[in-house]
């Protein structure tokens, strides 16, 4: 097909030219001084993005590797972890815990809202012996478009007086939705490259608080590739214990420079506006949002439910075949029931309109019941933001 | 600004990744065998695109260089040329003729339609002594969005029994709108890189018929850089008489491969659809088209008039500042009265919707009288095309 | 510094323009049809490169991840593995085994030759109870420049009638030195991207034989990210159980196309010639090779010993500071005693001469005792190869 | 062939990654504010490189276009120009003058030295009526590797009290060899992109002094594309009278930034060292330099004569076929008698060694009488420079 492909899955997101060109460079010696400078640069930037003063461990791995790393560095075989099932990704994290010989207790959810602080507090209060060693929550559920209130969850642990570690997956929120690891008292934050950081997939992160570092000293799950200690030790000098994904780090340096130039507040405001416009379109179409709690709407993606009897996957096929538009599919129990629009990363108003127009036309072509006017509604939101002086 | 810039001027047009990456290569020896193979490849492709069996001379120059080349290779000081003033670019070509000591007779036009065959025929019939040596017309007037019927103009020359050369500027039509130099009896066709050929600006073309080659033998205007003869002679072996713009030729090879893969008929149909959608938007907005003759609507760009009292340039500033959207300005006597939407080259439905949405919102923000619904109307055209099975 | 950096570490190796430009593309939906086609393409190519009919599991991970994967998929806690200590990388693999709760028995080596089949056979004969579950050897020791004779080691296992799995690390040999997983009866082959495959670091491989797949069914080491089974299952449809490193796979497709065009035999012959030229230089300089067994000289890299009292690291610093040349450092117990010249991947005669000239001049500048004439000797090898009609 | 191609023609020269990546960007609106900023940036940089306070006119054209531009803007039909025939490029410039209806008087040269100030002075003294309107010399003859002493030539005009314009071609010297248009009293300087400026071919320059601007007011040669006036007028606002080669200007901005970072003095010293090393090789090989005057040796390229009976083109074919090395051919009357090594632009010591090694081996393979040791001699020069503390 001619012209640009329209990639609107909730990550991997669009790569900026600056990032692609930065990666399009000869690899350098990962044991030389130029690499050291690169490593120090990206470490500084990562601490800034995660909002943490401690180390950020970077893995040549996808996000699921960083999930695994968070667990194996801090826990011991048979340890109990509390996983809040906010959606598919929370479920996958729980599965991983199980495979690693942890006892993953799942707090079941309905996939229509984020992890609830009160339920976590209740559960922890019912664990006076502190057998639960870690609480794992997903900040932004990529399968549902619901966010969790992390400060509230932190407060829940504190209110319960429970010493469990708090681990948070920010894979699809980092760089798109405000997040402050230290301020919010998160012990391990899991992050990935291919969403708000505007990079290709291939590297992922663990941002560490002091309590997590302490836990790592006694945790006995076997670990080698994922072990924090050698990474932290060598990172101090700008090196890694293995060959790092140098070219992706070139891209990361470029992405961080772009983010500093735009400013985190402006980035977050832009994401909120794009999300608002998307929801306006959904409302106009008469499609229900998967996320049922307005205060938890994600600024990074929106999952839309198709009417009973309609097929979300058919819609996606039409969008791809007719308009070269990639939409996110429904995952797990939401398969074929929802489609997801990613509106995160290197994106602006007019590009989002492309996606919404593609959805609106595809709804018609796929004969899915809806009202027109979604694009017009989104344009209304955008024009109003301009009138209010919001930066584009 | 974050996200992609939205470039919708009527050229330079969007560069495909394939083209940019092809140019992103070390330059090669322009006197070596790899270059020869490149030169032969692009010459074959250019003949295909121009629809000519004779040579296509490629200049490292912008399109105005190729205008000049067409004149200096075929004419002698004081020669009379008939230039049809279809708009700004026709006027510029006439100015060039004047600077080169030709007598440029202008057939005045109202800038709302393309060159008219009947008026040309009438003028030629009034030249029984055949003092007019060349008739110059613009196939697609980039300043107005009007096309000319070249076969009809050819027929006009023939009907008048006039031996003048026929020269046609296809800078903004080539690769977007059907064109057949030989079939249509055009003696010199002027082309450029940065429109339908999906390349950056920097090279331009003269496609030559036998009568033009014959004229070059006796033409006495001084010429060196623009001289066809040494280029044709060295091109036969895959070389050039000067250092060619090698990297742009890398891009041209890639662009031609893309065009062969899509097929000319599909390319032209795509442009017609995008133009139709744009006009549907204009109609919905209540904005008048600069081109007053429906059969002459350009498939490559559309020029829209703003209401009396409104400023087209103000609209363009708002679009750029608010939505990072570049629209074409009104040129010459149309300054501030029209804005132009380029819908040519590497472009598809959803990307065009971006531009139309940006225009619709900017009309509102700039307080220019209009009705909403332009984007919706364009979507209607696109969805209908899908229903009719038109390839996207 | 101006001009190209001269990267001659034994991997990461030089990236071809074709590979870098192929990666310099927008990421695509890893759940869509374009990705499926990509995945099938690279899987076919990987089977070809590894010489295996079974699955090749691709990890977004550095090579040390693939080491870990080979172990955790096939072994159970407390299992005994025999690791032949041919050098630093064999030692690191053994360390990993230890961290994963395996009993790693090390067959000590002197780091001057590759793994010896006879010693392996002897050890296996002394294990009538077959407590050793796997034999791990490095095909090409990147720290020493010695290769191991894998068919002979296979024969050793067979001669001993021992059922242990045979696992081979080909990280720095794959695509540079002949390797045939199936023909040689290797159960798990570990590979990486950043050497002979001419890619940046970031993905790594396990190529699997039937016996390894069988072992995976009963192996009980905990595994999640590294688990073969879900990868193999989803790969069948062109997908992955996690977000793959899509852009690196773009590069892999391009690299495989280049390798098919050159042909494996030509690639191997080129590496042998470059190695021969490097050794000729070493001999002329009067520097001793770390590899003491001529039949085991690596075609991918050469490790050279500096005279007693001299510092290899000082030499490397001079080469970097004076000539922008990166050489490989001595690792582990060879620190400061050897430097390593990588001559693998996307490399030709004249580029290697650059490196050798940089070494020869730096030996002088660093006041390390040597004879001149190394570059001349290497040129002698290259010119002679040309005379013999060897393809460049 | 595998590995990098070795491009050592005297331009186009190697493109830095920074430059290629800078050009690998979407084209922008040449009538918008981002373009204005670009235009102002590159104009500042060009004035710095040319050493002139007046305008530098940039053409989308090869260097021969800029030659033509220098003439047509300042002269009138029949005007006499004095062209010093220092080699092929001086001859071509004279040919161009002839084609443009100028009377080109050639001061014949032997192609073994640069333009001689004394001979120019003598000729001008013999022109008391000042019929000679311009003196044209080539600063660095790309066909011979000889430079001319421009300040001495300026002094020659002054000594003769002759008002002719002084025009200098710096196509292959600019950015490689010191040049100061204003300090040296040059009226029109002709420059190109594809040599010391490290860009692909496609743009070229006229740097103008006040006397040239004055001459342009009365010069009557027809001109349109080449006319300075509209370019200067629109450049003041950051625009051009035609579509500029935007992407090449992106590259120019990047190249200028690199040059500012390295510093002109360091750039010139590097070129001198590379030239010295090349001549040391030539001397060791026993090959005669085409340039017979040591004070005029070019720092940008070296032309070497092959012995009588030997074929330079055969040598070049062997170098290309055996080692993927492109050398410059002998031009005009030097065809097959010399080959040329370009050592200009983005180049460092070790890369030059590649070329010299390729030449040395090819001399042997082509059975051309020579002594070995050229590479060794060049290394001697480079190592000595390091010992003297010269920056690499």
UniProtKB/TrEMBL annotation, chains A, B, C, D:
Kinase is among the record's keywords: no
Cofactor(s) in the UniProt record: pyridoxal 5'-phosphate
The Aminotransferase class V domain, residue ranges: 69-279
Residues that coordinate or bind substrate: 340
A Pfam family reported for this protein in Swiss-Prot or TrEMBL: Aminotran_5
Record-stated family: Belongs to the class-V pyridoxal-phosphate-dependent aminotransferase family.
This protein's name: Serine--glyoxylate aminotransferase
Modified residues (N6-(pyridoxal phosphate)lysine): 195
BP-aspect Gene Ontology terms: glycine biosynthetic process, by transamination of glyoxylate
Protein keywords: Aminotransferase, Pyridoxal phosphate, Transferase
A molecular-function term among this protein's GO annotations: L-serine-pyruvate transaminase activity
Domain of life: Bacteria
Gene3D superfamilies named among the record's database cross-references: Aspartate Aminotransferase, domain 1, Type I PLP-dependent aspartate aminotransferase-like (Major domain)
InterPro entries xref list: Aminotrans_V_dom (IPR000192), PyrdxlP-dep_Trfase (IPR015424), PyrdxlP-dep_Trfase_major (IPR015421), PyrdxlP-dep_Trfase_small (IPR015422), SP_NH2Trfase/AEP_transaminase (IPR024169)
């Amino acid at each position: 097909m001619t012209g640009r492909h329209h990639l609107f899955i909730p990550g991997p997101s669009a790569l900026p030219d600056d990032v692609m060109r930065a990666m399009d460079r000869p690899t350098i010696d990962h044991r030389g001084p130029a690499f050291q400078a690169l490593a120090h640069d990206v470490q500084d930037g990562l601490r800034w993005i995660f909002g943490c003063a401690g180390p950020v461990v970077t893995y040549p791995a996808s996000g699921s590797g960083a999930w695994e790393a968070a667990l194996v560095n801090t826990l011991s075989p048979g340890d109990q972890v509390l996983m809040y099932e906010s959606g598919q990704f929370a479920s996958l994290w729980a599965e991983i815990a199980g495979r690693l010989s942890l006892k993953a207790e799942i707090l079941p959810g309905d996939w229509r809202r984020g992890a609830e602080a009160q339920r976590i507090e209740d559960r922890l209060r019912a664990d006076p012996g502190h057998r639960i060693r870690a609480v794992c929550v997903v900040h932004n559920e990529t399968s549902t478009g619901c966010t969790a209130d992390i400060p509230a969850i932190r407060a829940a642990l504190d209110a319960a007086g429970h010493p469990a570690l708090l681990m948070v997956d920010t894979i699809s929120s980092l760089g798109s939705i405000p997040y402050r690891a230290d301020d919010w008292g998160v012990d391990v934050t899991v992050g990935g490259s291919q969403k708000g950081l505007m990079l290709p997939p291939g590297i992922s992160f663990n941002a560490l608080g002091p309590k997590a570092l302490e836990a790592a000293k006694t945790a006995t799950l076997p670990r080698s590739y994922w072990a924090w200690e050698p990474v932290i030790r060598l990172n101090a000098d700008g090196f890694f214990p293995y060959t790092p994904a140098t070219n992706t780090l070139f891209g990361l340096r470029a992405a961080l420079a772009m983010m500093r130039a735009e400013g985190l507040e402006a980035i977050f405001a832009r994401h909120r506006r794009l999300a608002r416009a998307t929801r306006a379109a959904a409302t106009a179409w008469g499609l229900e949002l998967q996320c049922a709690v307005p205060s938890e709407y994600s600024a990074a993606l929106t999952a839309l439910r198709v009417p009973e009897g309609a097929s979300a996957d058919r819609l996606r096929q039409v969008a791809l075949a007719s308009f070269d538009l990639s939409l996110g599919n429904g995952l797990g129990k939401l398969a074929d029931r929802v489609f997801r629009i990613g509106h995160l990363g290197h994106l602006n108003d007019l590009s989002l309109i492309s996606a919404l127009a593609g959805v609106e036309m595809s709804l018609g072509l796929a004969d899915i019941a809806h009202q027109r006017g979604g694009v017009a509604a989104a344009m209304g939101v955008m024009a109003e933001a301009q009138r209010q002086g919001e930066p584009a």
